[in-house]
Write a structure and sequence with these properties.
two-stranded antiparallel sheet; binds ligand LNDFFVEH; methylthioadenosine nucleosidase activity; Futalosine hydrolase; adenosylhomocysteine nucleosidase activity; EC 3.2.2.26; Nucleoside_phosphorylase_d
């Protein structure tokens, strides 16, 4: 049976996903924090499965996230239409320049700075999770932690609904393996001035367990 691969950053997220999934063909693996380690680990898992003659039918980047106040509240569920490499580019005196506006040859940019979710996976999860907020999910290497950072990110990505740290890396791995990708997040904290004590991890992990039932 061809299964689904669900990758999370940390073991607590993986446990929350496993608690909600009943389909034995769904494999859940905590692959680490940040786009580089998550992307590399996912690429390896996809390559090993392909080499064994049992390629995955899809990859889901799942876990908790910071939510942009307005579109989504703490405890809410988010489905990513796109995984956006929000801090990949260059600073300049005139502001941030996204990587695909730096004049580099397109073939060096892979799938680009924004990778769309697979429309079939997205539609299936959207049907199973009608209350989910659907929109672009930013991938950042640095958690946003100031008012200025939040304002700038919202200015650059007015449609974004959440930020997390792995989606784009996982999406690159999926794109290179031509495996469908989608991102599923639940919100542990608002994006804004850093207040780690205010993160509602228990609430977000419980929401993740509920949402994970949609994966099978
Ligand atoms: O300490 C714990 O028990 C625990 C349980 C579950 C998750 C964690 C994490 O530290 C998750 C890190 C993970 O969360 C994403 N995340 C969450 N909020 C944000 C944010 O505001 N900005 C960016 N990323 C966020 C991210 O994907 C991290 O990898 C701890």
């Amino acid at each position: 049976m061809i299964g689904l691969l669900v990758v999370t950053a940390v073991p607590a997220e993986a446990e929350a996903v496993r608690a909600g999934v009943s389909d034995p063909t769904v494999t859940v693996v905590p692959v680490g924090v940040g786009p580089a380690v998550a992307g590399a680990a996912t690429a390896r898992l996809l390559a090993l499965a392909e080499a064994a003659g049992r390629p995955y039918r899809g990859v889901v980047s799942a876990g908790v996230a910071g939510g942009f106040a307005g579109p989504v509240e703490v405890g809410g569920t988010v489905l990513g239409t796109h995984a956006v490499a929000a801090d990949l580019g260059a600073e300049s005196p005139d502001g941030f320049i996204p990587v695909d506006e730096l004049g580099m040859p397109a073939e060096l940019l892979g799938a680009g700075r924004s990778i769309a979710a697979d429309p079939h996976l997205l539609a299936a999860l959207g049907t199973a999770l009608p209350a989910a907020t659907v929109g672009p999910v930013l991938t950042v290497s640095t958690v946003t932690g100031t008012v200025a950072g939040t304002t700038e990110l919202r200015r650059r990505h007015p449609d974004a609904v959440a930020e997390a740290m792995e989606g784009y890396g996982v999406a690159v791995a999926a794109a290179q393996a031509t495996v469908p990708f989608v991102e599923l997040r639940t919100v542990s904290n608002p994006v804004g001035p850093r207040d780690r004590d205010a993160w509602r991890l228990r609430e977000a992990l419980a929401a993740l367990t509920k949402a994970a039932a949609a994966l099978g």
